[in-house]
Amino acid sequence: MALNSRIVAVAVVACCWSVTAAAQSLAAPNVVVIGPNLVTSGQPTAQALATLSEQGFKAVIYLAPSSVSDAVKDEPELVAKQGLEFIHIPIPFGSPTEAHFESLSSALQRLQGQKVLVHCQLNLRASTMVFLHRVINGKEDPSAAWESVTRVWSPEGPWKHLTMAQLAKHGITFDPF
Q1: Digit-coded pLDDT (tens) for 12-54
Q2: Which residue in 18, 63, 132, 172 could disulfide with 120, CB within 3.0 to 4.6 Å?
Q3: Class of the CATH domain delimited by 2-169
């Protein structure tokens, strides 16, 4: 029994170190490692985007409009040059919709099992939309999944409304506010 406990402890430490290393290796604001195949963040630097394949990423989903001030203009090319899939779902910050959520969720379902970076400017759009995907489609515990949102912000205005509307639509009783 003691040997099994040590093996579990070593596995937990290795997993935590791996998650921490992944977060530290991505030069972007508000990096949140959801799991080994899913990371959310704010806008990565051009250098960070150019090395995503070295970190095992297979796809990038960008949720901010390309007209935002800190967008990396050649992001699609930097990502494609590495053989990664680039998906752009431009969500105006003041008006997120159910259609935006459905587009993201559909992409994440299609990419399941592959390492994906979902990002926007500051990880506000990304953290909220990925939360909804995790609890609605992944059937994850809302309280546990919400922690990855609160590491970045507390959604308000249209983001709070969208979150609550989607949870209610899918019969999920959870009020994080």
Answers
A1: 444 443 444 444 479 999 999 999 999 999 999 999 999 999 9
A2: 63
A3: alpha beta
